[in-house]
Hints:
By secondary structure, this protein is of the alpha/beta class. The protein has helices spanning 3-15, 43-55, 78-87, 99-105, 130-137, and strands spanning 30-35, 65-70, 92-96, 115-117. It has one domain: Rossmann fold.
Amino acid sequence: MDRRAFVGIVGGCILAVPLTAAAEQPAMPVIGYINQRSPTDAASIVAAFRQGLKEEGFVEGQNVAIEYRFAEGQIDRVPALASDLVGRGVNVFVATGGTGSVVKAKPVIPRTIPIVFARAVIRSSLAWSLASLTRATTSPE
């Protein structure tokens, strides 16, 4: 999946937040970003992610907030980091830095919060359903 499709999926997830839940959500949609690496190791990925969001009209701090969490190479920290983000009411999760981020985060994330990931090894246990996997891997281009 290319960067444009990946960012498009994140944007679609943000826009798909039900209007009925608007009163319970912050004024701005919040992306929970998890990476199993350190901020330094993930700097280029984060920069590309921000740029891709900007190209789609989402500017951090203006119309979208991003809560970043980095496991600093300690993959066993990912579930606690994901749990913290769930408690903060994020609208969508983005898991980067390898398949481990998705595998470790998924069990603590409610099914009502979409998880977007790229370049992970696709396994049936990562998608809630075949339909969600198809939506996540189909590019509109």
